[in-house]
Write a structure and sequence with these properties.
Blueprint (H helix, E strand, L loop, with lengths): L9 H11 L9 H13 L3 E4 L5 E5 L11 E6 L21 E5 L6 E5 L6 H15 L8 E6 L7 H4 L10 E4 L7 E6 L1 E15 L4 E9 L17 H11 L5 E7 L10 E8 L3 H19 L5 E6 L5 E3 L1 H13 L3 E5 L7 E15 L2 E12 L2 H17 L3 E8 L9 H14 L4 E5 L5 H8 L4 E4 L4 E2 L7 E3 H18 L2
Parallel strand pairs: 3-6, 3-7, 7-20, 8-19
Antiparallel strand pairs: 1-2, 2-6, 4-5, 5-22, 9-14, 9-17, 9-18, 10-12, 10-13, 11-12, 15-16, 16-17, 21-22
Helix pairs in contact: 1-3, 3-11, 5-6, 5-7, 9-11
């Protein structure tokens, strides 16, 4: 362990250290909310909070800057709680143990946690916002620090905001994770779940049960990595089964682990005629070769092995219908943004498959995550999924929908921030939008009033995993940019 409070800028790291000492899992944020309210009160700042757990800290302008427009600085209080196998840690009660080290890839100094997530996402953004507010050296106009709740597990805090939740109409989000980028847009999203239920019967005397497995894929973030065309285990499994062109009866199927991750593994147990084993093996080998060539997944393996653990299977016709549904469901990039070159506008990730077996029934549940920068195109993609469900007899549920953040290349706040970045660091920032979720889209829709928004922040790698690490020089760089922008906005 190391004392991160010795790092520069000291005020940022001191506040962040304080946050690491307070548990703050999503949906269990009472302790961190109390901590932030007490901290704001110690500096004489007025605060107000709503029933959803959002906190707004009112920060007076520095002398002579009272007439500047209000600037909102926004970040979320909760963190993803993950730990390595074998690490003893109670996220409801224990402090995060921090370490200073060097990044293995770049050699740059980093801060990480000891076997758990660090919570720099988005604790570092919150710490920078409060540090700028309390600093005697930072010139700024009136500020509102908007500290939202439950971003990681549903964005329920942002969804609860209203037009009168805060006054400012220019907003800096500090939840980005590349210190040389300024973001001006992100995707919205929606979860979809499809449910099929099939009657089963025992394996026939002329049949054998085999297991088809898909392994070795890279997976990745269903937003940030979707444009790379990485292999999807569900789709490759489907192609292998359909490509054999034989009668199949599905008995068991599972794939993926998280809705927002491209599935890396899948398996299915099917009953086939004993004479058709070679055909299925041939199909699996062909799809394996195709998958490696299509997406450079060198470690992809699709294997067919003997399986005796399942003894009841759906009918051939029901299996054909289900495989047709998997083939028809949209997956991957569905469209590019018309105004931002190379930005994915709409995508769908066929994410997870689970099954339940028993009482003469096979129940299959499939989860998808659809993302879109355009609300209308998001609805188009959802309608495609609904059509597949209708045509194949699946029950469909949708939920957790949130709006995207439409890019505004003409943003005044963007021009100021980009100009300051280049003046400070001698090169232009990368101005971009991301095909992942930030709270800006929800805030813009719920609060209204044509809010001018941008997002930036320090470089963070491995977020949402125990590999999470924040780059120390990235914190220094982003905080320096924040202070410069606030000074410019103060006039």
């Amino acid at each position: 362990m190391s004392d991160i409070r010795d790092l520069e800028p000291k005020s940022v790291w001191d506040i962040f250290h304080g946050m690491t000492q307070v548990p703050r899992p999503s949906k269990k944020e009472e302790k961190i909310q109390a901590h932030m309210l007490k901290l704001a009160d110690s500096y004489g700042f007025k605060t107000h909070h709503d029933a959803a757990g959002n906190i707004v800290v009112d920060v007076p302008a520095k002398p002579g800057c009272e007439n500047a427009p209000i600037t909102v600085i926004q970040g979320h209080l909760d963190m993803v709680c993950e730990k390595n196998r074998g690490t003893e840690h109670d996220f409801d009660n224990d402090a995060i143990k921090t370490l200073q080290s060097k990044d293995e890839e770049t050699g740059r100094p980093i801060v990480k946690a000891d076997g758990t997530t660090l919570g720099a996402d988005n604790g570092m953004g919150v710490a920078m916002a409060l540090a700028a507010a309390i600093s005697k050296d930072v010139k700024h106009g009136p500020l509102e620090l908007l500290l939202t709740a439950d971003e990681e597990a549903g964005m329920t805090g942002a969804k609860a905001l209203k037009p009168d939740s805060f006054k400012g109409r220019q907003l800096i989000n500090l939840d980005a994770e590349e210190d040389d980028h300024i973001y001006i847009g992100c995707a919205g999203g929606c979860d979809s779940n499809l449910f099929w239920s099939y009657a089963t019967s025992p394996i026939g005397s002329d049949e054998t049960a085999v297991r088809l497995t898909v392994t070795g894929l890279r997976g990745g973030h269903s937003g940030g990595d979707i444009h790379e065309g990485r292999g999807n285990a569900i789709k490759l499994m489907m192609r292998s089964l359909r490509g054999a062109e034989i009668d199949l009866r599905i008995g068991e199927v599972e794939a993926g682990s998280m809705r927002n991750a491209i599935p890396r593994e899948a398996h299915a147990v099917v009953a086939i005629k004993k004479s058709d084993i070679d055909k299925l093996k041939k199909s699996a080998a062909a799809v394996q070769a195709e998958g490696r060539a299509e997406s450079y997944e060198a470690n992809l393996e699709i294997n067919v092995t003997d399986e005796s653990g399942v003894d009841a299977f759906a009918s051939t016709s029901d299996t054909t219908t289900w495989l047709t549904a998997l083939a028809a469901l949209p997956n991957g990039v569905l469209g590019l943004h018309p105004k931002v070159p190379a930005l994915v506008e709409t995508s769908n990730n066929c994410s997870t498959i689970k099954n339940e077996r028993g009482n003469g029934q096979l129940k299959i549940q499939m989860g998808c995550l659809t993302r879109g920068s355009s609300d209308s195109q998001l609805e188009v993609a959802k309608a495609q999924i609904a059509a597949v469900a209708q045509l194949t007899g699946a029950d469909l549920t949708t939920g957790n929908q949130y709006s995207g953040w439409e890019p505004n290349p003409d943003s005044k706040l963007l021009k100021i921030t980009a100009s300051k970045y280049e003046a400070l660091f001698g090169e232009p920032a990368h101005v971009a939008a991301i095909h992942a979720g930030l709270e800006c889209g929800i805030i813009g829709k719920n609060v209204g009033g044509n809010i001018d928004m941008i997002s930036f922040g320090p470089t963070i790698r491995g977020a949402h995993s125990p590999d999470e690490r924040v780059f120390i020089d990235g914190v220094q760089k982003s905080y320096k940019l924040l202070c410069a922008v606030l000074e410019e906005l103060a006039g």
